[in-house]
Design brief:
- This protein has helices at residues 2-28, 31-34, 62-65, 89-98, 142-157, 174-186, 222-227, 236-241, 258-275, 285-296, 319-328, 330-351, 358-369, 388-398, 402-418, and strands at residues 43-45, 59-61, 77-82, 126-127, 164-171, 197-198, 201-202, 278-281.
- The chain is an alpha/beta fold.
- The protein has a four-stranded parallel sheet.
- Helix 9 (258-275) packs parallel to helix 12 (330-351).
- The radius of gyration is 25 Å and the shape is globular.
């Protein structure tokens, strides 16, 4: 009798434990762990947050989404900005040097373009246009930065030391970015002084000829801008995010098949985008700010403004020109689709309980106490004729005064001719 009662007690306890376990898993276990679908155990799908014109979203591994770095301004961390032209990077860069809440923020001066972004040990914590200047060349790309940044910082600080480099960038819808670059060049600005370094040397003029004679391309039409096959504006975002060493840099004879070379460059850009600590999207300012703050556990002291119009959006483009624009930027279009999927998947993951660490939940609670709530980023648009690329134009024009354009252009031509 006693044995039967004990057996019943054991059965009841086991049954209770089983039911409790089912309830616990059903309510508390995250889908990416407990889903009955085998493909969802290691992957998170960001499709629910994507616009309806996307047929499907890419699947991403958890390591692609869980980006938490707890940026330590007093440690060995360095934020490295891969600044792609005409993506609103100038505005973002200004936020970094003027509007970050840090124990040692950047110190800016009225009559200087650059700010001092150093911690208490005089170690540089921000590598960007407005802190270190174009230390690795004008708008240095992924290939140039990874080869140059450590040495450049060692030279600046006068010592060689281990650092943790946290790369980040901003991407923009490719056609709008391209038109913005054309308008920028049409007004007389250029990026002639870009080094185009790869594997220890600059691209030669045979590899990347200039599209124009003289100091600039003022007044160029959109058709002429598109017609130059050597124009680095074509698929710029893909090229600047790829490891160009994989395709022989700018020497097209290394991978002579164009389709193969382009696919290799695109896959490299996607892989680097997966690995990069953070990237934002020009079209999603509030969400980009939120994700940046969550990624590095620091916050901005001012809001990011989303404009409904830019100079590029007001340009009338004929149907045949639109088709040509799409052809010239087909790699960027695919990269941007991938980036948008990854961006919203990271955003979804950051907001989910499975992606929020104890540290971040405490961080968000501190922000709420301080009156800052970014748990639901705003997507409001502000109707204004001024735009991010307008601010970029003003900043770039400061560095491209007419009086020294010719001298700098000739100096660049002579330097690149030496490599031929």
């Amino acid at each position: 009798m006693f044995e039967r009662r004990r057996f019943k007690c054991v059965v009841v306890l086991m049954l209770g434990a089983f039911i409790s376990g089912v309830v616990f898993l059903g309510y508390f276990c995250p889908d990416w762990v407990c889903s009955s679908n085998p493909t969802s155990r290691s992957f998170v799908d960001g499709s629910e947050l994507l616009p309806s014109d996307f047929q499907s979203a890419a699947k991403f591994q958890r390591q692609d989404l869980k980006k938490e770095f707890f940026f330590d301004v007093e440690g060995d961390d360095v934020l490295v900005f891969l600044h792609i032209q005409k993506t609103g990077g100038t505005t973002f860069g200004r936020h970094l040097v003027k509007n970050t809440d840090l124990s040692h923020p950047c110190v800016c001066y009225k009559d200087r373009k650059r700010c001092d972004c150093e911690n208490s040990k005089q170690h540089i914590w921000l590598f960007s246009r407005y802190s270190t200047g174009w230390a690795c060349g004008l708008h240095a790309d992924w290939t140039e930065l990874h080869d140059c940044v450590p040495k450049a910082l060692n030279d600046r600080e006068g010592e060689s030391r281990n650092r943790r480099y946290l790369y980040f960038t901003i991407l923009r819808e490719p056609i709008q970015r391209y038109i913005s670059e054309w308008k920028h060049v049409q007004r007389g600005s250029t990026w002639l002084t870009a080094k185009l370094m790869c594997n220890g040397r600059q691209a030669t003029l045979d590899e990347v000829p200039f599209c124009f004679q003289g100091s600039d391309w003022t007044g160029v039409t959109l058709d002429d801008f598109m017609a130059c096959q050597h124009n680095l504006a074509h698929n710029r975002q893909t090229r600047m995010l790829a490891n160009l060493s994989l395709i022989g840099c700018y020497n097209q004879s290394v991978v002579s098949n164009r389709a193969v070379r382009e696919q290799m460059m695109l896959e490299s850009a996607k892989e680097n985008l997966r690995d990069i600590a953070f990237f934002g999207l020009t079209e999603f300012q509030a969400e980009s700010r939120y994700l940046f703050e969550r990624t590095f556990r620091l916050r901005f002291t001012t809001d990011f403004v989303q404009y409904s119009e830019t100079h590029a959006s007001k340009v009338d483009v004929a149907p045949e020109q639109q088709e040509r624009l799409s052809q010239l930027n087909h790699l960027d279009a695919e990269l941007y689709t991938f980036a948008k999927q990854l961006f919203f998947a990271r955003l979804e993951f950051a907001r989910s309980s499975s992606g929020r660490s104890e540290h971040f939940m405490k961080y968000e609670q501190d922000l709420k106490i301080a009156g800052v709530d970014h748990s639901q980023p705003s997507t409001e648009y502000e109707d204004s004729e001024e735009a991010y690329d307008g601010e970029v134009d003003a900043a770039d024009q400061e560095e491209a005064e007419q009086k020294d354009r010719i001298a700098r252009a000739e100096k660049t031509r002579r330097r690149r001719t030496q490599w031929t």
